Amino acid sequence: MQFTYPTFLFALFALAIPIIIHLFYFRRFKKVYFTNVRFLKEVKEETSARRKLRNLLVLLMRCLALAFLVFAFAQPFIPQEVDVKTGEKAVSIFIDNSFSMSSLSQDVPLLQQAKRRAGEIVNAHSVEDRFQVLTNDFEGRHQRLVGKEDALSLIDEITISPSVKELSKVLTRQNQALNSDNAENKTSYVISDFQKNVTDIETYLDTTIQMNLVPLQSVQEKNIAIDSAWFEAPVQMVNQTNLLRVKVRNLSAEPVENIRLSIQYEGQTKPVGTLTIPAQTSVIDTVPITILRTGWHKAKLEITDYPVQFDDKYFLSFKVAEAINVLIVNELSPNNYLKAAFEGIPYFKVTNQNSNNLDYSKFSNYQMIVSNELVSLSSGLAFELKKYAENGGNLLVFPAQNANVGAYKNFLSSFPANELINFENQERFVGDINTEEFVFKDVFDNKSSNLKLPVTQGNYKMSNFASRGEERLLTYRDGNPFLSKYGIGQGNLYLCSAPLNLTFNNLVRSGEIFIPMLYKMAISSSKENRIAYTIGKDESIITDNFSQGNETVYKLKGSTEEFIPEQRTVGSKVYLGIHNKVREAGYYELFLNPDDVLAEYAFNYDRKESELDYFNEEDLTKIAGNRMSVIGLTSSASFENLIEERSQGVVLWRWCLILALLFLLLEVLILRFWKV
Q1: Per-residue pLDDT averaged across 624-637, rounded?
Q2: Architecture of domain 89-220+612-648
Q3: Which of 123, 162, 376, 663 could form a disulfide with 64 if both were Cys (CB 3.0 to 4.6 A apart)?
Q4: What pLDDT shows up at residue 637?
Q5: Domain spans of the chain?
């Protein structure tokens, strides 16, 4: 047996008080009146013996009552299989409040059961202990330790949240809070259903804090979810049919049939069809969308599935630009073939400028820049072109026949890309076209031998560094590159080894190659345009800077909430930090003035919660090993006592108090009914 507060045992010296009272009070002389001396001796002997026995019993009851009262204050306990540490405790309790905790367990949502368990953990500790109540939301008020009453209040306020965190991040956050406290003993509890895709604690190790896992088990349910959606083309164009790909997953162990998929677009809901999905697999369906106007568009995909429904809807939004702006930078006069190729597509707006008369600040207004046979590139122009490509632009470079090789080398090596070595006046035939890359993918119905590929009369020999990340689009028959692609940042560099001039290159006359090449390059992007964002992920929205001053504040507004995101302006772009401010899936409008919507963004719930696959108690025990303790399911009536025994051992102070009262009662009974 051990004591929580052993210093109270010094109060046992108070046992001397009843002993002293006994010695001085019960030995006082008493007068006895008598009429016959012969009977006095007999009465005196009998009365003295009974009085002595009664007084000793009273003394014993008083001593025992006082002793057990002292023991009650010292709080004795019997240690169990878990090491019991005495002193003030800091306790962190994580309550999983993700969507999966809305599942039922014995007709009660798991979250309610988790909150009850958390309350019992708090009640099982002493008033001096301090507590952290943590959820998936990682709110600021949950990052500090509070008293017992405040902890119970925080637990009562917990509701289901769209946020979901890996358990390794949860344990790290618990450690930060516990290590900020000066308590001698630190303990953490994790109350969760322990989904496999977020329970990443296999390698977690921290011996300074006692970890306890409290698993809750729900009724196993089936789930069908819309996993994601994306457009086949990176840029959506007006008056064309754009193909939207939709991925639907079957997360159950049985195949499903007749899953109805529909889309809501431009105020109309249209059925797409029915899906049959094998067990534990996914299917990808195609939804054609015809776009008839420019500007921002919203769409919602939906399936019907019970009982898990948070992942049955998928919101998306996208912008259709009024035109694709192309800048052609020329050394002297514009190339008429290049100009005519772009002007033949009404959707393109072309601007020709001389290399000596450029406004670098307007580069971001163009989706594509063509460097048309520049003899040299100044350091300023080279820097701005690289910056333009890194920020998502598409740069197409045709070197001049008499190009400054040194200047081009510095320019291309900064990307990095393979460099120009020397110009060779030699006829070469393009023999291979890469139809797997976006630029030429789905351009030709059949790659026949009649396809007219370019022929050049002169071209630059190129370096061949494997580390430069070259992707060849058109290749000469001798294996040398004619047209190559390099990804840089969010944009692309397209580099041709031959000038565009007809004297050296007949590419402009290969219409079946040249026209689709320019078109696909202008709408390509190394980073797919975001049509949806995920709630709970710490992502930034990158948008154009619509502000005319430094004091203007951007705002986002949903159907039920409005907030000011964190904002940072870099050049012509604004980075908006969302963090945990979006709580409900749907559409959110960006504005400076409420009457002028600048952009519309779609947010969806995290699909991590869609996979209803959990670790059971036996699995957790194997994972935890000796590093953590797993507290199995028990009845609610005994759970608090179980936690109390684990944290304090078998507590005996209540029994000590009962015994103290019992001995006081016995003393009263002896004094009242034992007459001498």
Answers
A1: 71
A2: 3-Layer(aba) Sandwich (3.40)
A3: 663
A4: 47
A5: 2-79+660-673, 89-220+612-648, 224-321, 324-523, 533-604
CATH code, residues 533-604: 2.60.40
Q: What architecture (CATH level 2) is domain 324-523?
A: 3-Layer(aba) Sandwich (3.40)
Q: Which CATH architecture has domain 224-321?
A: Sandwich (2.60)
Beta strands in 292-439 (DSSP E): 295-303, 313-320, 324-330, 348-354, 368-372, 394-398, 420-424, 428-433
Name, in order, each residue with C-beta under 8 angstroms of 309's C-beta and a sequence gap of 6 or more: none
Residues 171 and 164: their CA atoms lie apart, in Å, by: 14
SS (H, E, C) 159-202: CCCCCCCCHHHHHHHHHHHHHCCCCCEEEEEEEECCECCCCCCC
| Range 668-673 average pLDDT | 79
Sorting pLDDT into bands at 50, 70 and 90, what band is 300?
very high
pLDDT tens digits for range 257-291: 999 999 999 889 998 889 999 999 999 999 999 88
Helix, strand, coil percent content, the chain, rounded in steps of 5: 30, 30, 40
Contacts of 35 (CB under 8 A, 6+ apart): none
CA quadruple 418, 421, 423, 424: dihedral sign: negative
Query: Tell me, what amino acid is at 279?
Result: A
Q: pLDDT tens across 502-557, in order?
A: 999 999 888 888 888 988 888 886 555 789 999 888 788 888 777 766 667 899 99
What pLDDT digit, counting tens, does each position of 207-257 carry?
Answer: 778 888 999 887 767 889 999 999 887 778 788 888 899 999 998 888 999
Annotate 414-467 with DSSP letters as a single string.
TTT---EEEEE---EEEEEE-TTSTTTTTT-S---TT----EES-EEEE---GG
Tokens 């070469």 -> residue: 428
Strand partners, 542: 575
Q: Which residues pair with 262 in a beta bridge?
A: 271, 302
pLDDT band at residue 5 using 50, 70 and 90 as cut-offs = low
Q: Which of 473, 491, 490 is nearest to 482 (CA)?
A: 473
Cβ neighbours around 201 below 10 Å, total? 22
When mean pLDDT is compared across 2-16, 56-70, 629-643, the lowest value belongs to 629-643
Interhelix angle 511-523/336-343, nearest 10 degrees: 70
Task: Answer yes or no: same fold for 224-321 and 533-604.
Answer: yes
